[in-house]
Write a structure and sequence with these properties.
This is Transcriptional regulator, RpiR family. Keywords: DNA-binding, Transcription, Transcription regulation. This protein is α/β, with parallel strands linked by helices. It is built from eleven helices and five strands, in the order H-H-H-H-H-H-H-H-E-H-E-E-H-E-E-H. A five-stranded parallel β-sheet has the order 2-1-3-4-5, with helices on both faces.
Length: 282
C-alpha cells in the first residue's frame, strides 16, 4: 500500500495538528513530502517535532526514512507502464465532452484519497454535537452548501444556510460561540466575504469545517477540519463534482456513525410530508 492510500485509509488516528500535515501531504502528493521537514511543518502551520512524531506514528524511523519510501514510489511509478494509462491527455479521437468527463472521473478518483478518513470522522462528530450549524459558500459553492444543508436538516435541528453571506448576515456572528459550528465552502478564486465570515466566526469561538481545494482557502488557517477536493479538469472552469462527492460521503458517514439516533427525526419528517402531500407515493 502506498503512503497516500495509508494516510487516507483511517487505519491510524491523527491529532488535529497531525491532520493538518496529512492534508498538506495528500493535497500535493508526493511533492509536499519531498521537501524538508521544516518546510512541510511551515506549510501545515505546525512545529517541526510534530512532523517527526507523525512519521514515527506511520512506522518510519524518522523523516529521512519516510522520504526514502516516497522516492521509492516515485521511481516505481516512473518505471511503470501505468503512468501512460494515468495520462490526462485525451486521445485525438476524443471529443471535448469525452475528454472532460474522463478528467472528472480522474478527479473523483483523486478525491478518494485527498482527505484522511479521520477528518471525515471529526467533521461528523462536530456536526452532531453542535448546538447550531451555519453554512456559507461562494457564488458557485453556495449551491453545494445548500445541498448539504438539506441533508443536515433531516438529521438535526438548528441548521441555517446563508449561501453567499450578505453584510446583513454578519450580524449573526454575535450569536455564535464554542458550541456552534460553521461549515464553509471556499474554492479558488477565494471569496472575501466567505473568508471574512469564517475568520470572524472562529474568533467568536465557533468550530470551523472547511471544504476547499488543494491550494486551500485563506480561511484554512482557522479551520478545525479541512476537507480537500481536487478541482482541476480539462476545462477553463474548475469542477465541483468531487466536492459534491465529498458532501455525499460526509452524509453517508453521518448515517454510518449515528443512524439509529437519527431515525426518529427522519420518521417524523416523513409523517409530516405524507400528511401534507409533499411527495408522491407512500
Amino acid at each position: 500500500m502506498q503512503i497516500r492510500e495509508f494516510l487516507s485509509s483511517g487505519r491510524v488516528s491523527f491529532t488535529p495538528s497531525e491532520e493538518r500535515i496529512v492534508q498538506v501531504l495528500l493535497s500535493d502528493y508526493p511533492g509536499a513530502g519531498l521537501t524538508t521537514a521544516a518546510s512541510l511543518a511551515k506549510r501545515a502551520g505546525v512545529s517541526d517535532p510534530t512532523v517527526n512524531r507523525l512519521v514515527v506514528k506511520l512506522g518510519f524511523e524518522g523523516f529521512p526514512a519516510f522520504q526514502a519510501s516516497l522516492l521509492g514510489e516515485v521511481e516505481e511509478r516512473l518505471r511503470s507502464p501505468l503512468q501512460m494509462m494515468d495520462s490526462r491527455r485525451p486521445s485525438p479521437s476524443d471529443s471535448a465532452m469525452q475528454g472532460y468527463v474522463d478528467s472528472v472521473a480522474m478527479a473523483l478518483q483523486e478525491a478518494r484519497t485527498s482527505t484522511p478518513q479521520s477528518s471525515f470522522d471529526r467533521a461528523v462528530r462536530m456536526i452532531i454535537e453542535a448546538k447550531s450549524i451555519v453554512l456559507v459558500g461562494g457564488r458557485f459553492s453556495g449551491f453545494i452548501a445548500g445541498i448539504l444543508s438539506g441533508h443536515l436538516e433531516q438529521f438535526r435541528a438548528g441548521v441555517l444556510n446563508l449561501g453567499s453571506p450578505t453584510r446583513a448576515d454578519f450580524d449573526r456572528l454575535v450569536d455564535l460561540g464554542s458550541r456552534d459550528v460553521v461549515i464553509g465552502f471556499d474554492y479558488r478564486r477565494y471569496q472575501r466575504d466567505v473568508v471574512d465570515f469564517i475568520v470572524q466566526a472562529e474568533e467568536m469561538g465557533a468550530g470551523i469545517i472547511l471544504f476547499t481545494d488543494r491550494w486551500q482557502s485563506p480561511a484554512a488557517a482557522r479551520a478545525s477540519v479541512s476537507l480537500i477536493s481536487p478541482v482541476e479538469v480539462q476545462s477553463p472552469y474548475d469542477t465541483m463534482v468531487p466536492a459534491l462527492a465529498h458532501i455525499e460521503a460526509l452524509v453517508a458517514q453521518v448515517v454510518a456513525m449515528y443512524g439509529p439516533r437519527l431515525r426518529a427525526r427522519i420518521s417524523r419528517i416523513e409523517q409530516v410530508r405524507r400528511a401534507n402531500d409533499v411527495t408522491e407515493g407512500a
